[in-house]
């Protein structure tokens, strides 16, 4: 066991390397790593997962005397994935201890010309829904391209906000455009996004997209459960299947009241591949008090439809 001498102290970081370092090929980049301790720590760099200290790569990468990792400006043909697109860690050591930084991911960027695409997210939209429009940037430029605004008919600008109020909302954290309470007038407008390359300063407009509203149709029951007459004890299953646009929601009731909540009633619902809603009520052990008129009701924006049938339990 080694004991520390008087006044010795292990390394501690005064300046940690950033978790991500963007290297713009025209400017290069510098990652600082400053450590203190007694005696003064030695700072070295490693590729993440490696045990051999970094060696300088002429004109591409070198460790400065103060321990900083420097990536000078480079030509596109000098790009090296093992240098410009990898992960590093800073290591500080002295006679009193050792300290290893968290990973620093380096991402070199050389592209100035880029394209962005405006899209309408999700499935069919109906009157009254909220539409979400997305501005898709090239994956390798994520974090470098910022969505600065959405344009409506090339004239009205929507900017990022944290308030979340009004007809048009652009959340500041993701650059999407939310259009609330859709109406037919929204389908006659054109929407596009504007972005900014934060390294080159170049602004780019996307394509224009339109919103299309689907036609709503009232639900129809394509399968209805039958009436049942049985003795107490056995299980029973009631099922309804409904179609419609938008996809309907099925609710159940007994004698006009919501089904009781207990371990004997199991209600399930899912949407089939062809878009029909399949809903069922399973009673694991029928009791006398479960008898009555059961109703399944399918509802959507266009209306509702229901079906009722009795469940008779002997002893009622």
Please trace the helix and strand order, writing H or E for each element: EEEEEEEHEEEEEEEEEEEEEEEEEEEE
Please compute the radius of gyration using only Cα atoms. 32 Å
What is the overall shape? Answer: elongated
Average pLDDT figure: 91
Poorly predicted runs are none
Strand content: over 45%
Write the CATH architecture name of the largest domain: Sandwich
The level of helicity is under 10%
CATH topology type of the largest domain: Immunoglobulin-like
Highest-level CATH class of the largest domain = Mainly Beta
Please name the fourth-level CATH homologous superfamily of the largest domain. Answer: Immunoglobulins
Helix- and strand-based class?
A: mainly beta
GO cellular component, one term: membrane
InterPro entries: Ig-like_dom, Ig-like_dom_sf, Ig-like_fold, Ig_I-set, Ig_sub, Ig_sub2
Domain Ig-like: 11-101, 219-312
Subcellular location: Membrane
